[in-house]
Amino acid sequence: MFVPPVAGACAELSGESAAPALADWCAGLRGAALTIDGLSCRFGGLVAVDDVGLQVEAGEHVALVGTNGSGKSTLLRAVLGLQGRSRGRIVLDGTDARSPGEWDARRRLAPWIPQRQATGRFPLTVDELLDSSGHRAAAVGVATRLGVAALARQPLHTLSGGQLQRCFIARAFGAMANGGRLLLADEPTAALDFDGRDTVAGLLRALPASVLVATHDRAVAARCDRVLEMANGRVREVRM
Amino acid sequence: MSADTLAAVLGLAVVHRAIAALLITGVAMPVVGVFIIGLDVVTMRFAMMHVALLGVAVGLMTGFDPTACAVLLCAAAGASLAPFAGRRDGLSGPMVMLMTMAIAAALLVLSISGVNAAGAFELLWGSLLAVGMRELVLVAVLAVAVLAIYLGFRRPLALLLFDIELARCSGVRVEALATLLLVTVAVAVAAALPLTGALLVDAVTLLPALSARNLARSFDGMVGLSMVFGLVGNSVGFVIALLVDLPLGPILVLTAGAITLLTFVVGRKR
């Protein structure tokens, strides 16, 4: 398993223009193990995730690939309790969340980059979004690296799809700095240009924590330790 | 209206109370409107009118204070909607059910008790010029509570009203906060009905919030602007109604509507 050296990870995450404080949060990161066992999720009669078992070791980076509708997003959402499960266990850092308090703790441990970033019914600025990560300095640092820090006062609904995605990525990294140990990234490069894809793939690779990323992007998948494929709600390993 | 008549009207105690009610509702009810739009429960007003009617019917039948019954029943109804707030289907279905069940129950209670239904339906035609001290105090307490909720929960509120899943993933206790907001909205609508009537509730609640949404760039900006538009709309509407000697209610609605249209045009040009 590739474990990024902390110094190298900090350099990648901070880039040239970010604040020195970045090194502090980056050095404190560590991964948590995720075990999914016999997980099934249904939408009425449709089985979106079918008896899935998978393991992400602490610090491991795993890519989840597969066609549209194969169940990748549902799986990630189930880890966060945003999607109900009909059966199975999802254990992160030794806990299978069941109570509201345990789900709150789970969501702190597992920051999320959503596939469809909300633009909301309400005005919310980039600054307010980054602030919601719980670690403003880290989020702003990554936003700087991704070229969206200057948009701080812009309402999210005025941004392009790519800018919005970069803001949500920066927020997720801020949440990692705020105690996150497993990053769940759902198509994190789908709306980005070529340079943006490379930058985000590099940032994800540099993260010294566990990562489970659903992606169609070969550059992202190629930089992960393992690649799993989902088809018809089931998972199989395609590369070690 | 002549200057002497105007001075005489402004010297009346009922007008003083009406002005106080306009200023209080002008500040607080637009914030409730922000909650309503954010939670996407615009039909809540209709639902609460029906539930309030049931409360009044129960009050008339049992001899308890009808307004207190209406407020309490609305609070309970608001809380009962909370479990549906985070669901994909939203609150429209449960609210329609609540609304129809409440009006049916109200008519049944009125029929069984033999109480004159007109007494209950008067609630829907409240008047600012018939505001008593008790209603004024109730709305003032509510206004303080609404502003305290906003100031105390600014960050979680901004996230919850922006996107419920983002709020959940940011550590916001979505269920608890949604319950608090729904109860607040329900009680606020019920408490404002005797003052403003069903017609004016929208003018003092939703229209200033919609005006603010046309221009605001952040959650705090939206709340602040909604209060400004609420105060300006109520004040300007009141002055116009006095000067042209026309009914206050429709003038207030038209003034708030004109502000909303103006902000829509300005907002599109920005």
UniProtKB/TrEMBL annotation, chain A:
<dbReference type="InterPro" id="IPR027417">
    <property type="entry name" value="P-loop_NTPase"/>
</dbReference>
<protein>
    <submittedName>
        <fullName>ABC transporter ATP-binding protein</fullName>
    </submittedName>
</protein>
<keyword id="KW-0547">Nucleotide-binding</keyword>
<dbReference type="InterPro" id="IPR003593">
    <property type="entry name" value="AAA+_ATPase"/>
</dbReference>
<dbReference type="InterPro" id="IPR003439">
    <property type="entry name" value="ABC_transporter-like_ATP-bd"/>
</dbReference>
<keyword id="KW-0067">ATP-binding</keyword>
<dbReference type="Pfam" id="PF00005">
    <property type="entry name" value="ABC_tran"/>
</dbReference>
<feature type="domain" description="ABC transporter">
    <location>
        <begin position="34"/>
        <end position="240"/>
    </location>
</feature>
<dbReference type="GO" id="GO:0005524">
    <property type="term" value="F:ATP binding"/>
</dbReference>
Automatic annotation (TrEMBL), chain B:
<feature type="transmembrane region" description="Helical">
    <location>
        <begin position="250"/>
        <end position="267"/>
    </location>
</feature>
<keyword id="KW-0472">Membrane</keyword>
<feature type="transmembrane region" description="Helical">
    <location>
        <begin position="180"/>
        <end position="210"/>
    </location>
</feature>
<feature type="transmembrane region" description="Helical">
    <location>
        <begin position="222"/>
        <end position="244"/>
    </location>
</feature>
<feature type="transmembrane region" description="Helical">
    <location>
        <begin position="136"/>
        <end position="153"/>
    </location>
</feature>
<protein>
    <submittedName>
        <fullName>Metal ABC transporter permease</fullName>
    </submittedName>
</protein>
<keyword id="KW-0813">Transport</keyword>
<keyword id="KW-1133">Transmembrane helix</keyword>
<dbReference type="InterPro" id="IPR001626">
    <property type="entry name" value="ABC_TroCD"/>
</dbReference>
<comment type="similarity">
    <text>Belongs to the ABC-3 integral membrane protein family.</text>
</comment>
<feature type="transmembrane region" description="Helical">
    <location>
        <begin position="98"/>
        <end position="124"/>
    </location>
</feature>
<dbReference type="InterPro" id="IPR037294">
    <property type="entry name" value="ABC_BtuC-like"/>
</dbReference>
<keyword id="KW-0812">Transmembrane</keyword>
<feature type="transmembrane region" description="Helical">
    <location>
        <begin position="68"/>
        <end position="86"/>
    </location>
</feature>
<dbReference type="Pfam" id="PF00950">
    <property type="entry name" value="ABC-3"/>
</dbReference>
